[in-house]
Amino acid sequence: MMPDPEATRQPAAPETGTGTAFCAPVIVYGALRSGTTLLRLMLNAHPELNNPGEVDFLTDHIRPAPDAPTGWRYDLDALRADRMFRAQQIEIPDGMDGLDLTHALLQRLAGKKARGLLCVSMHRDLPLAVELLPGARVVHLLRDPRDVARSSVEMGWAGNLYHGCDHWVRSELDWDITLSRLDPKDWVELRFEALMDAPEAELSRICDFLGVPYSDKMLSYPEHSTYAAPNPAVANQWMRHCAPRDIADLESKIGILMAARGYPPSAPPKSAPGRIRRAQLALHHKAGMWAFGMRNYGALAFFGARIAGKLRLTGLQRHFQGQIDARIRQTLR
Predict the structure, then answer these.
(1) What are phi and psi of 118, to 5 degrees?
(2) Which listed site, 115, 192, 273, 276, has its alpha carbon 20 to 30 Å from 9?
(3) Which of 211, 215, 218 lies closest to 10, judged by CA?
(4) What's the rounded Cα separation, in Å, for the pair 257 and 264?
(5) Pairing state of beta strands 187-191 and 137-142?
(6) Are 25 and 119 in contact (CB under 8 A)?
(7) Average pLDDT of 199-215?
(8) What is the CATH number of domain 10-230?
(9) Residues 6 or more apart in contact with residue 155 via CB below 8 angstroms
(10) Cα distance between residue 126 and residue 325, in whole Å
(11) Whole-number pLDDT of residue 48
(12) In this structure, how many other beta carbons lie within 10 angstroms of the beta carbon of residue 196?
């Protein structure tokens, strides 16, 4: 059934401290490696939608500040150094901070495309995001955590599946918190597997939620990106590429949450790994990330960033992190 246009229209938002009206964006929310970049490309290809990319920097560097005019304050140095913020190529207005800055940055992101409903992508801190952006609606993108963990290991963010699923768990627990604060008409769920299997039908459903007509241009993204067309074979790769023992370890850890999200375990539940096995997994996790980091970023930058961080040498840490970020920009799609 087509939604009532009045129900899907973006609600009016409160005035900012500068006196300019602010309209909350649609948040595309899902764990890292769950397909948020692919969905961003699809949405941004729509002539009436505008998704400029990831904006986790909006919540990563803001903190409560009772003495500030809006009750919030940014760590502006950390924001300027943030890799994803820098990739957006937008400026921080002089003298602006807190919620006024949040709104101003979103307005600059909206201005990167001539028109279209603003949609932004986020992977964490969703409860904080909806607190900062009252009236925001959410598209919750969900992917099998076994594939998320497998992809995270490939990215060097984890050394094994057992630890590679941790950020999926955090994202989904944040979703549970946020869900209780959203009106049912203000969110919709999209499964990555369904998007790969029936992209036109799923994108039409998302367009209904957003209040725009479906456009076949949404599937034109392979013409201007490195991403291939939707393919059902992309889903459930863990079945072909992951060792049964690794899957069993992961499922023993998050099987209940997996099942609650509609992803049943591949086998009857097994007991959680014992102390020795957990120690082995932790060592393998650390060694895997170190090997990946040294291979892809160089030992000096990789260990330099970590040592400087532990010693709270902020300038030096940002120097080494800048080298790592530059390398990531060259390889990350």
Answers:
(1) -75, 125
(2) 192
(3) 211
(4) 9
(5) parallel
(6) yes
(7) 98
(8) 3.40.50.300
(9) 33
(10) 24
(11) 96
(12) 20
Least confident of 18-27, 33-42, 95-104, 180-189: 18-27
Q: How far apart are CA 305 and CA 43, in angstroms?
A: 35
Cβ neighbors of 108 (< 8 A, separation 6 or more) are: 90, 91
Render 32-65 in DSSP notation, one character per residue. Answer: TTSSHHHHHHHHHTSTTEE---B-THHHHTEEE-
Residue 11 has pLDDT above 90, yes or no: no
Residue written as token pair 């948040």: 27
Do 281 and 287 contact (CB within 8 A), yes or no? no
Angle, helices 36-44/199-210, rounded to nearest 10 degrees: 70
Count the neighbouring beta carbons within 10 Å of the beta carbon of residue 8.
18
Calculate mean pLDDT across residues 210-218: 97
CB under 8 Å to 190, separation ≥6 — which residues? 39, 139, 140, 141, 142, 202, 205, 206
Q: What is the pLDDT of residues 96-146, one digit of tens each?
A: 999 999 999 999 999 988 789 999 999 999 999 999 999 999 999 999 999
Distance CA 97, CA 195 (A): 38
DSSP structural state of residue 69? T
Is the separation of the CB atoms in 25 and 120 below 8 Å?
yes
The fraction of the chain above a pLDDT of 70, given in percent, is 92
pLDDT at 12: 35
Name which of 119, 6, 144, 146 is nearest 55 in CA terms: 119
Residue 1 has pLDDT above 80, yes or no: no
DSSP conformational letter for 214: -
User: Residues 312, 318, 320, 323: what is their CA dihedral angle, to the nearest 10 degrees?
Assistant: 170
- Could you count the other beta carbons within 10 Å of the beta carbon of residue 225? 15
pLDDT-based confidence at residue 333 (cuts at 50, 70, 90): low
